[in-house]
């Protein structure tokens, strides 16, 4: 049993390599899209729906059983979405830190900040 | 000193009726082309071009039931084409941003069906790649404007999000 047969992609190694590269590129595109258009989960749903049926079509007669294929693809979709959302959260956190005003450093600045805070609190 | 009032350039400006009508026609023609294939008036896409679009023809071709997703996408696009005719002042900016990519996407989708039926496999690859870029642009147009109601969320963000996700895998499948 070769690796290509294991994934149900046939015995053509060059064709399999091209297919896997395209699949990875599509997956990367989906992650970029989910991050960019956060929180649009429908992108992950559309992508994973296609992925499930690609795996299902290829898994006939291979080790990867349809049920396993379904479970693995759905799990991959969830992981992909969560990862993309976490990356987006980290990016926005960095943006917030970058745009926050600098903390007062001199004694005069600290005194002014304290006065402003007490004026605001009334 | 009074703060300068910033005017919303889209306030009170709905998209032109011509753009709405074009989207309606493009979506209707698209739906008609699909219905002809589904009702077997035209040859099935899986059987044309020596089975180039059949599930077993390419390594990344999805199984037949995958194409059921098109029903949800076409209904969403058609719903969007209907929704633009209904009054909604709050959605003018989103509508302006998404209308042109939507028209192009519907037209390109019809072109893809016609090319596939004629057996022009290479052309379908180019068309689906352009379609992917068009749908990306549609999503990009509304990125900065959160949906203000459920219909906008479902018909624009939901439909075109689903469309984009599916096209990413369909483009890879067509390329193999």
Account of the 3D structure:
Chain A is elongated. The model of chain A has no long low-confidence stretch (mean pLDDT 72). Chain A is an all-alpha fold and 122 residues long. Chain A has helices at 3-6, 13-36, 42-58, 66-99, 107-121. The N and C termini of chain A lie far apart (76 Å). Chain A has five helices and no strands. Chain B is built from six helices and no strands. The longest helix of chain B is centred in the middle third of the chain and has 26 residues, at 92-117.
Low-pLDDT stretches of chain A: none
Sketch the topology of chain A as an H/E string, one letter per element: HHHHH
SSE topology string of chain B = HHHHHH
Overall number of structural domains of chain B: 1
- Helical run tally of chain A: 5
DSSP strand content of chain B: under 5%
- What does the overall shape of chain B look like? elongated
Radius of gyration of chain A: 25 Å
Number of DSSP helical runs of chain B: 6
Identify low-pLDDT runs of chain B.
none
* Overall average pLDDT of chain B: 81
N-to-C CA distance of chain A: 76 Å
Strand content of chain A: under 5%
The most extensive contact between chains is: A-B, 33 and 33 residues
What is the count of β-strands of chain B? 0
């Amino acid at each position: 049993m070769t690796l290509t047969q294991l994934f149900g992609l046939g015995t053509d190694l060059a064709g399999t390599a091209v297919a896997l590269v395209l699949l990875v590129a599509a997956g990367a595109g989906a992650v970029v899209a989910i991050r960019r258009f956060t929180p649009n989960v429908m992108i992950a749903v559309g992508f994973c729906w296609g992925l499930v049926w690609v795996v299902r079509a290829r898994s006939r007669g291979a080790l990867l059983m349809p049920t396993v294929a379904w479970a693995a693809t759905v799990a991959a979709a969830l992981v992909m979405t969560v990862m993309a959302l976490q990356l987006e959260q980290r990016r926005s956190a960095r943006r917030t830190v970058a745009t926050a005003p600098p903390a007062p450093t001199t004694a005069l600045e600290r005194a002014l900040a304290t006065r402003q805070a007490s004026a605001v609190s009334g | 000193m009074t703060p300068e009032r910033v005017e919303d350039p889209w306030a009170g400006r709905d998209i032109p009726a011509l753009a709405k009508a074009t989207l309606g026609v493009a979506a209707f023609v698209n739906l008609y082309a699909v219905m002809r294939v589904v009702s077997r008036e035209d040859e099935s896409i899986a059987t044309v071009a020596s089975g180039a679009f059949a599930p077993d023809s390419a390594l990344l071709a999805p199984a037949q039931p995958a194409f059921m997703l098109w029903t949800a996408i076409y209904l969403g696009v058609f719903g969007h084409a209907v929704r633009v005719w209904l009054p909604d002042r709050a959605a003018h900016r989103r509508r302006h941003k998404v209308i042109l990519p939507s028209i192009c996407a519907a037209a390109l989708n019809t072109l893809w069906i016609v090319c596939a039926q004629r057996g022009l496999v290479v052309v379908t690859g180019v068309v689906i790649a352009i379609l992917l870029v068009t749908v990306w642009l549609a999503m990009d147009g509304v990125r900065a404007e959160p949906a203000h109601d459920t219909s906008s969320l479902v018909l624009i963000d939901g439909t075109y999000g689903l469309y984009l996700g599916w096209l990413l895998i369909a483009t890879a499948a067509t390329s193999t």
